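Dig into what follows:

_____
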Amino acid sequence: MTDNASAHAREADDAGDYDDLLATLDMLESETLRKVENGRVYDAKNERVRIKWIRIAKDVIAEKRKVMADRDLQELSERIEQLEERSDDPTGSNRGLP
C-alpha cells in the first residue's frame, strides 16, 4: 500500500512538473512571437535580431512539442500499468471496468 501511495504522489508531481514546464514554454512562445511580430525592425542590423527571435521561437515551439509528447507518453504508460494491474487481479473483481 505504501508503494501505491508513493507512486501516486510521484505521478502527481510529474504531472505538475509538465504543467509548470508547459506554462513557462507558453510564456516564452508568446513573448518571442510578440517580438517577431511587433518588434522594431528599421534597418539590416535589427533584421538580424528579428531573425534570431524567429529562431528562438522555433526552438521554443519544438521543445514544447517534445514536452507535450513526453507528458502524453507518461500518461499512456501510467494507463497501461493500471490496466496490467487490473488484468493481474486473481479475483477478477476489476474485470470489465475502464
Remarks:
- Helices lie at 2-38, 44-87.
- The chain is about 85% helix and 0% strand.
- The radius of gyration is 22 Å.
- The CA atoms of residues 41 and 49 lie 8 Å apart.
